[in-house]
Every structure is written in structure tokens, then in C-alpha cells.
Amino acid sequence: MADKGANSCDGEASTDENADSASKSPLNKQWVKLNVGGTCFLTTRTTLCRDPKSFLYRLCQEDPELSSDKDETGAYLIDRDPTYFGPILNYLRHGKLVINKDLAEEGVLEEAEFYNITELIKMVKRLIQERNQHHRARDAKKHVYRVLQCHEDELTQMVSTMSDGWRFEQLINIGSSYNYGNDDHAEFLCVVSREYPGATPNATEFEPTDRAQLIQQKAARM
């Protein structure tokens, strides 16, 4: 969907009388039509000239070094993505960066660099940096692992009663070494984990119980 500042370039042809009248109007010189990737945007020269070092400023000055062709309606032809031009134009209008949730900050940065809008480039880079820092902080979680020993008939109850953020990770069968009455009961090592925020990324720590340590040593010798 085109930006609200965009209008279709099709179907805007006026009569010769209206066109001649419009060309003589002093207000007409203040408005500029841009055809960005097939989508028409209508804005003022004041908006486009906000950054004197930008491509759009040079376009309004009709810089001879720019090869700026026009379509049949007189709109400047710019071969760029119109979806990402919306945030660029709105920034020039009110000085604020507004990016729809379905747009990528990197895409806006690419367009800002193409149009050479210095302050916007800095703003988007800062936004990307803050986003990446937020993601790193969110992912920086310390995983604490515990190894628990249990009998076969205790396994279901132990897994179902885990709480306080503990999560089941792995179950290791270490054989049936304990006899209770006339029945052999299998022994298991149950590995559970829990996340703690704010630690070094990918940090891990094991907290085996004393009994589990003995079972681990026994399992290693099997």
C-alpha cells in the first residue's frame, strides 16, 4: 500500500486549459511530483530541500549532473522502492522517523543513504544499534542445569511437579541397580534447566546434586 503522501500518477491528466492555467500559477512552482518506482508522491520544494546535501535537494535545483527524467505527467522518475520512500519523505516533512512494523530499519537506511540525508542516516543507524543491543540483552541469559536422580516409579511425578521456571531437558537411563523387594527399579538421570537473565551470553552452569554426582560417576564406569 502506498504512503498517504502518495497519489497515483495515472489518470491525472488535465485539460489543456487547466494545464496552462496551472503552469502560470505561482503556487504550482512550490509543488513537486515524484514518480518513485511507479508510485506518485506529491510534496513541496521546501520539504525536499530540507537537507541541502541531499539528492532530492539537487533534484529540485535541477542539477545538470543528475540525469533526472520525467514521466508524461511531469513527475521526476526515481527508480527506487516506493514502500521505503514513505518514511524518507515523512522525515523531511516533520523531522521524525516513523517506520511501519512491516518495514525493516536496514531498508530505510539503504534509502536514506541513497538520498544522502545525513541526519536521517545517523538516526536510523542509532535505531539499529539500539535494537541490536536490546536483542543481545534479551538473549544474554545464563542457563543453569541440574542433574536429578530418580527411580522409574518417581519419574512421572518429578517431571509433572517441576516449577519455578525449571524445564525438562534430557532423561538418561543408567540401568537397574537398586532392588526393592522382588522388583528391579530402573534408575534415571533427569537433566533440567533454568534461565537467569543478565548474564554473559551462552553461559552455562551445572548444579548436580550429591546423589546425582555419585550416579554420574557410576554411569561413567558402565
What keyword list fits this structure?
single chain; about 220 residues; alpha+beta; Potassium Channel Kv1.1, Chain A; Alpha-Beta Plaits; four-stranded mixed sheet; 8 helices; about 40% helix; about 25% strand; rod-shaped; disordered C terminus
Low-confidence stretches: 11-24, 199-208, 218-222
Number of helical stretches of at least 4 residues? 8
**Strand order, sheet with most strands:** 1-3-2-4
Shape: rod-shaped
Structural class: alpha+beta
Strand tally is: 10
Instruction: Please compute the radius of gyration using only Cα atoms.
Output: 33 Å
Quote the beta fraction: 15-25%
The CATH superfamily of the largest domain turns out to be Potassium Channel Kv1.1, Chain A
Task: Provide the domain count.
Answer: 2
- Kindly state the mean pLDDT as a whole number? 77
Terminal Cα span: 66 Å
Major β-sheet, in short?
4 strands, mixed
Helix content: 25-40%
CATH fold field value of the largest domain: Potassium Channel Kv1.1, Chain A
Element string (H = helix, E = strand): EHEEHHEHHHEHEEEEEH
Using the 3D structure, state the CATH architecture of the largest domain: 2-Layer Sandwich
Which class of the largest domain in CATH terms? Alpha Beta
